[in-house]
Amino acid sequence: MIKFFRKVRQRLLSEGKTGKYLKYAIGEIILVVIGIVIALQLNNWNESRKNEDEFKAVLQQIFTVVDQDSDNLKLTRYQLSQQIKIIDDLVQHADEIDKELLPHLLYYLDTEPSGTNSEISYLIGYLKFNPHNKKQSNLNKSLSSYGSTINEGFNYNRKIILPFLEKSNIPYPSIVFGYSAINDFENMDSNFFSETDIDKAFELIKNPVFLNALKSVKSIKSTHLIFIDDLIAIANTNKTFIQDYYPNVKLLYSDIGLIGDATPHNNWSTNLPLTLTNELEAIWEGDFNLTKGSVKFREGENWNFNWGGDTFPNGNTLSFGNNIQVKPGNYHVILNLDKKTYQFIEQNE
């Protein structure tokens, strides 16, 4: 093409048509400039699309992390509510408390959540937004603010019940906030405390001074609940902001399965795989024959992400929650990780 234009110019010069030559040369320059402008625009468009794709890829990871944060906060809320219920039961129905479990419960009431170890701040460092793009800029600002808030923690280490237990020489068991209470403290060593230790524990919960200490603990737990509710609301708001910007954003969970002693595997090491039937809404389904026992939902072959629940056949999932107690039968199982629900729909033979 360049050779063709050069020949045309040379012919015009040789024929002495200088005016036409100049017009032609100017036109050629204009065409070249237009070509360069178009090429630059195409390059800018490609770069913009590439940056947008990269922005959305990181945003999708952030969306999943914020969802996990919300799950973890709901678990902490559930566990704090459980502690408050224990206090109410101790104050109002002390004689109905499991005798062997009482010292465990008292020590457990002094345990506190450690906060949310979110990966959000790490991921935001990879969120390359265009400062001239108002939507991206505002979204980055909101997520950065959320990241600073979510990792603040509770910063409360005061022990109120522990001094009473130590003064009574009741030995300290191995106990962890949340984990120890899974499935109603079924993993607690029922032989850890002696009859004397248990009697001392019962004497404590009849002591007015100790009962006032329990009230103080309940007040602290209730304050934590308010803080957690605020964090959950902030997390959900940021999930909505992400969905408004990127309507097709989805949760990045994979290899979800059903596990438990009620499955045909009859163990807690092998998953029964579920099928992803709706990627956008994170819906997983499967058909299983279950026996009497319990199950949970799990991602992959480890326990980094798992979900339990307290009701059957339908309920709300709880990250690291209790085992779901099931009845024998053939079921079509539906797990919705977007709405945090599960269903066990019994199938007629």
Distance N to C terminus: 76 Å
Count all strands and give the number: 11
Shape: flat
Q: Characterize the biggest β-sheet.
A: 6 strands, antiparallel
User: What is the tally of helical segments?
Assistant: 8
Rg computed from alpha carbons, rounded to a whole number of angstroms: 32 Å
- Supply the number of structural domains: 3
- What is the SS-derived class? alpha+beta
Average pLDDT over all residues? 87
The run of helices and strands is: HHHHHHHHEEEEEEEEEEE
What is the percent of helical residues?
Answer: 40-55%
Poorly predicted runs: none
Q: Strand portion, in percent?
A: 15-25%
Description:
- The chain is an alpha+beta fold and 349 residues long.
- The chain folds into 3 domains: 2-50; 66-245, no CATH class; 256-346, Immunoglobulin-like (Sandwich).
- The chain is 49% helix and 16% strand.
- The strands form 2 sheets. Strands 1, 2, 5, 6, 8 and 9 form a 6-stranded antiparallel sheet that branches. A 5-stranded antiparallel sheet has the order 3-4-10-11-7, with no helix packed on it.
- A hairpin with a 4-residue loop joins strand 3 and strand 4.
- Helix 1 packs antiparallel against helix 2 (18-92), helix 2 runs antiparallel to helix 8 (208-245) and helix 5 (134-150) runs antiparallel to helix 8.
- The longest helix has 75 residues, at 18-92.
- The chain is flat and about 120 Å long.
